[in-house]
Design a protein that fits this description.
By secondary structure, this protein is an alpha+beta fold. Helices cover about 15% and strands about 35% of the residues. Strand 7 and strand 8 form a beta hairpin. Keywords: Metal-binding, Zinc, Zinc-finger.
């Protein structure tokens, strides 16, 4: 087990919003996670904060699990997965938050899985003229970029300052370019210095070109 995954244990907790599967140690929390919002107190929301319907015995109030605001059932009826808050089941959200969460679900279901599966690149450190063939992947706790070859590196995601995707082919209006690599800059632990790594898809691995391109595209979305 690598050092970055030694604290991956999770526990099931119950909050007013629902059941959540969270890391036992806060330090192991995913950098893509969100804290649960404080709920607007019942006494401060006599009306729906979307349609202004007055709450009464028949029209009950509901809190959106993503924003914490108060809504009637009509304005807060959707139950949508919310992986960024580690909810086990889909939870009630207002229409606006539900749209955002639905888009993020695709990110979790596709891009993060691609990154965790990994891809193979030639990796060059700094200004070196030598490169090393390495398998690059996102750690299971989503906190580190792990590189394995003859050498081993673990780069904390939150320390990455810039991600530049390298492409070839048409770009002006054509949209036919393909990702062939990336340049990564990140802070060195314990200092303010920036280190750089260059990732290049190997031309000798034609069967892996599509996988590498998908991995780079996912990395580009993560950087946003």
């Amino acid at each position: 087990m690598s050092g970055c995954e030694a604290r991956d244990a999770k526990k099931l907790v119950r909050s007013p919003s629902g059941l959540r599967m969270v890391p036992e140690h806060r330090a192991a929390r995913s950098p893509f996670g969100l804290d649960e919002p404080p709920w607007v107190p019942d006494k401060e929301c006599p009306r729906c904060m979307q349609c202004d319907t007055k709450f009464d015995f028949i029209t009950r109030k509901h809190h959106c699990r993503r924003c914490g605001k108060c809504f009637c059932d009509k304005c807060c009826s959707k139950k949508v997965p919310l992986p960024r808050m580690c909810f086990v089941d889909p939870v009630r959200q207002c229409a606006e938050c539900a749209l955002v969460s639905q888009k993020e679900t695709e990110f979790y279901d596709r891009q993060l899985k691609v990154l965790m599966n990994g891809a193979t690149f030639f990796v060059t450190l700094g200004t070196s003229d030598k490169s090393e063939l390495m398998v690059c992947r996102l750690s299971n706790n989503q906190r580190y970029l792990v590189l394995d070859g003859d050498s081993h590196y673990e780069i904390e995601i939150i320390q990455i300052s810039t991600v530049q995707i390298l492409t070839e082919g048409f770009t002006p209006g054509g949209g036919n370019s393909r990702a062939i690599g990336m340049v990564l800059q990140y802070k060195v632990p314990g200092s303010e210095e920036l280190a750089q790594m260059k990732f290049t898809a190997g031309e000798d691995f034609s069967c892996n070109k599509k996988l590498s391109a998908s991995w780079l595209a996912a990395m580009h979305k993560v950087s946003k």
